[in-house]
């Protein structure tokens, strides 16, 4: 892990993978095939890419029952506790429609309306991601979305991991379809005989899923095109090197392109953390992935003081930020750019990933400068409400006409004038 003395600007930004021309062409071909052949295309691609020959796409009730029998009771308890925490947090984000009335009778307001239908992509393959279901479904439910569908690639035997099915069932979601990849995104965007089209698609996926989301954006809304995961730990000489190393590796094991960074004014801490990362890597099951991440995208930035460390952190604008300093909470107000801020030695990043309540779908690649975590707001739309009274028209009509003519839009002005003349 490189130890770097800060002398210039720093950045976590990496080029987002736009895919090769062949990958983009393949994705476009898949989307077109799904639009033309519907379910038959989905069955064909599922057999080709996932090795599963299916008779039906929709998960049936017996599969949910079997999933409950497979799941450890302790895991079920943890899922239910996490759902409670995440739901409580997101319910607090709900906005209400509002109206205001002026003395002249004008009524102005904002109408908040949930989206009609949302589709969630849940990655499959060797891993299962029940946390993705919680973090995407719960804010949509809090917003009041009417219909929520899940697509996820099946295993070769045609099944879906028990943890995924149980988590969905606990949330009341039973519209789960055994399809993944670009073909699943196409099905959600355009609909097939079995899968109804939605208004927005959320959830992470591989390069083909990301390219498909880009391709259908405009037909539907999407959450974001996320880059590799990243963590920055802002720490002083009082921090625990073992904790920091463990937290850095918790992100490094995600992906060879994940970024794990320590920013500190303490050279001694930098040296300790570097040695501890090497030690902990030895026994990590995903050692090769984490090691590649640490080698290529990991760094320890040593600053002249804590003030510079805060400035460097803001410049990095990380997805996850941990503050491990003597008075960590006092620094929160000085952090301008971060997707999620974890304060203190017991607020390890996995606490937020799985359990605490805030959403773990966060802006990456420096986009925390202008983006926010996934929230209830992502599943509603807002309409302005305008009701002008006769009195308000008489008082303000001339000004409205003048502004319209200033922009050379005579018909706009006449639409006002005709009402004034009528009076």
**How far do the termini sit from each other?**
77 Å
Helix content: 40-55%
Number of helical elements? 16
How many domains? The number is: 3
β-strand amount: 15-25%
- Across the major sheet, the strand order is 1-11-10-9-12-13
The CATH architecture of the largest domain: 3-Layer(aba) Sandwich
Q: State the name of the first-level CATH class of the largest domain.
A: Alpha Beta
Q: Can you tell me the CATH superfamily of the largest domain?
A: Nitrogenase molybdenum iron protein domain
Kindly report the CATH topology of the largest domain. Answer: Rossmann fold
DSSP strand tally: 14
- Rg over CA atoms, rounded to whole Å, is 26 Å
Shape: globular
State the order of secondary-structure elements, H for helix, E for strand. EHHHHEEEHEHEHEHEEHEHHEHEHEHEHH
Average predicted local confidence, pLDDT: 94
> Which structural class fits the helix and strand makeup?
alpha/beta
EC number: 1.1.1.23
Keywords: Amino-acid biosynthesis, Histidine biosynthesis, Metal-binding, NAD, Oxidoreductase, Zinc
Function: Catalyzes the sequential NAD-dependent oxidations of L-histidinol to L-histidinaldehyde and then to L-histidine.
Family: Belongs to the histidinol dehydrogenase family.
